[in-house]
Structure to design on (447 residues):
């Protein structure tokens, strides 16, 4: 029964995502990663290479036909998300009664739903994180060589997805350190797992041809924009609640310090998959802008903790807590559906131009306006313009540069306005001639 529900929910969601993915333009970041995949490499400028390697499996002809084919790898990962979430929650110790609704709430929360259809490094990272966390939970009960190797491989693959994947080593280390009394610690196997993870780290942190300054240096460069943001931690907390849902966010109550007399160490392992991520984000938010999706890797622990909270409530008032669990699953599905309708411009179209959904519209029109004006060779320091033009205007010569020299000329010499009355979008492409005669472009969104 449980498997049938999970498969039915996954099949329905995947079908809807394919329709949505084919109808909505690629965001600039998606086009950016697609362009990476056309020239697979060991490293790239912004992130580790896993998202490009995944996308490289999609034939070029398919990727050029429809955005749905570009998004196919993450849609397929999203199809397995309900089952993976269920396995994780069961590994945390929840019964079927609480695990099924909690898995659906976690698999269809706004963060997971967006990651299952938008091509970003967060999609493979989240899936590998769930599997690695499940391995850590299993290790807390008793280790086997395969579990240790699987945990090390999970850290390695997570690090190839995003630099924050390195934090997956913390719950795995906790599972090996907080052993039941008298249980042996697999030191030799732990060393082997560390070596495997370090091999992946070498691929990420060592310099690669064409990837300078490299993902680590690039991400650290954000600190140069540091300022004072006293409300940053509150914004992080609000983002986590919004991404997970109000009821599942209550699972944080189960991620406190476990009772020292408790022989079940799984809540402690879950806590090591949650609090370090949140603490780092809260600290960063005091000095730089923290994007909401950065906290996505903390949500699997939160979903499992929510299931354990429901499990505890079922022992007292089963009817009320079961209703809460299913209402959390229903609200996650409803909110994610509304979010996708809004992003597609179907629900309240005029609002699309006033939020993040604006990044999914207008780029084809922009590319058409620029390419039909016979601009000649184009340069830009804006990766969004470079990706959008390179994806949507294949016959245009576009080069991404560190400095386009636009500061040496008047940007107002020429411009194209991309306006969509229905969606409320009003984006302007500013143009000028650089010193070498090439056209330099930048963009701005008009409010």
């Amino acid at each position: 029964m449980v498997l049938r529900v999970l498969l039915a929910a996954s099949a329905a969601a995947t079908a809807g995502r394919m329709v949505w993915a084919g109808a909505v333009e690629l965001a600039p970041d998606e086009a950016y990663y697609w362009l990476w995949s056309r020239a697979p490499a060991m490293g790239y400028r912004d992130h580790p290479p896993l998202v490009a390697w995944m996308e490289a499996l999609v034939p070029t002809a398919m990727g050029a036909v429809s955005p749905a084919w570009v998004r196919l790898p993450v849609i397929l990962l999203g199809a397995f998300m309900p089952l993976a979430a269920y396995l994780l929650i069961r590994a945390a110790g929840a019964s079927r009664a609480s695990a099924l609704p909690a898995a659906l709430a976690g698999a269809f929360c706004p963060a997971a739903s967006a990651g299952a259809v938008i091509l970003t490094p967060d999609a493979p990272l989240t899936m590998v994180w769930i599997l690695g966390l499940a391995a850590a939970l299993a290790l807390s009960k008793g280790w086997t060589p395969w579990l240790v190797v699987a945990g090390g491989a999970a850290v390695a693959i997570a690090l190839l997805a995003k630099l924050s994947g390195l934090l997956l080593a913390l719950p795995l280390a906790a599972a090996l350190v907080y052993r039941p009394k008298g249980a042996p610690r697999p030191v030799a196997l732990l060393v082997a797992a560390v070596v495997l993870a370090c091999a992946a780290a070498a691929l990420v942190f060592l310099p690669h041809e064409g990837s300078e300054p490299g993902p680590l240096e690039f991400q650290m460069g954000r600190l140069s924009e540091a300022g004072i943001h006293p409300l940053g931690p509150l914004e992080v907390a609000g983002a986590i609640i919004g991404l997970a849902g109000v009821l599942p966010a209550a699972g944080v109550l189960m991620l406190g310090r476990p009772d020292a007399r408790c022989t079940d160490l799984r809540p402690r392992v879950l806590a090591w998959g949650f609090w370090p991520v949140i603490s780092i984000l809260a600290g960063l938010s005091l000095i730089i802008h923290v994007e909401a999706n950065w906290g996505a890797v903390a949500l699997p622990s939160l979903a499992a903790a929510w299931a354990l909270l429901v499990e505890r409530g079922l022992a007292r008032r089963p009817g009320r807590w079961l209703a809460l669990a299913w209402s959390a699953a229903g609200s996650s599905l409803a909110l994610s559906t509304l979010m996708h309708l809004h992003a597609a411009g179907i629900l309240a179209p005029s609002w699309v131009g006033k939020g993040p959904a604006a990044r999914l519209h207008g780029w084809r029109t922009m590319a058409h306006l620029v390419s039909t004006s016979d601009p000649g060779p184009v340069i830009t320091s804006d990766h969004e313009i470079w990706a959008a033009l390179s994806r949507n205007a294949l016959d245009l010569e576009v080069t991404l540069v560190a400095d386009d020299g636009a500061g040496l000329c008047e940007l107002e010499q020429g411009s194209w306005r991309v306006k969509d009355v229905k969606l409320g979008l009003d984006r302007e492409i500013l143009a000028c001639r650089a010193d070498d005669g090439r056209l330099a472009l930048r963009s701005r969104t008009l409010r």
In short: The radius of gyration is 23 Å. The first helix runs from residue 2 to 23. Strands lie at 378-380, 398-400, 414-420, 425-433, 439-445. Residues 406-413 have pLDDT under 50 and may be disordered.
